[in-house]
């Protein structure tokens, strides 16, 4: 069955030394958002590792867009992809700093972003699998 979108957040590698050396950033999670169609996040925040080492989330989510059971969702996604506005079609991944348990007065902070264009995937008819996204 191909009428679904599978989003996997396998791992995260920090390359920016400013973030790696910032001691207020200790735990990280990743949020994935597609306009106002979808918002998912890794269920756990994991400890930040040193620059160049991978944090493994191994997170996977499936969004069904089949005609039979998910027609409204499918139609909405189609309308988003057909809009000339360039930003409605892109998945935005946000790396978020989660404050430690003992400092819950601190806010979650967005520290990094990456984007994937669904329109581009459909046009090229090629999934993005096992690739790093800057």
Would you give the CATH topology? Immunoglobulin-like
Q: Class in CATH?
A: Mainly Beta
How many separate structural domains?
Answer: 1
- Unreliable spans are none
CATH superfamily: C2 domain
Number of strands: 7
Gyration radius, to the nearest Å? 17 Å
Q: Would you tell me the overall average pLDDT? A: 87
Strand content: 35-45%
Count of separate DSSP helical elements: 3
Give the overall shape, derived from the CA principal axes.
elongated
Helix content: 10-25%
Spell out the helices and strands N to C.
EHEEEEHEEH
* Main sheet properties: 5 strands, antiparallel
End-to-end separation = 30 Å
CATH architecture: Sandwich
Structural class by SSE content: alpha+beta
């Amino acid at each position: 069955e191909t009428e679904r979108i599978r989003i996997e957040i396998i791992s995260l590698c920090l390359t920016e030394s400013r973030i790696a050396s910032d001691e207020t950033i200790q735990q990280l999670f990743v949020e994935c958002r597609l306009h106002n169609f979808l918002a998912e996040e890794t269920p756990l925040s994991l400890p930040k590792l040193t620059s160049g080492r991978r944090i493994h989330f191994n997170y996977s989510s499936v969004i069904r867009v089949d005609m039979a059971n998910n027609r409204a969702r499918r139609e909405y996604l189609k309308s988003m992809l057909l809009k000339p506005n360039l930003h409605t079609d892109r998945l935005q991944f946000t790396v978020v700093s989660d404050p430690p348990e003992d400092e819950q007065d601190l806010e979650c902070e967005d520290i990094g972003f990456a984007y994937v264009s669904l329109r581009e995937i459909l046009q090229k008819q090629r999934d993005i699998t096992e690739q790093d996204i800057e």
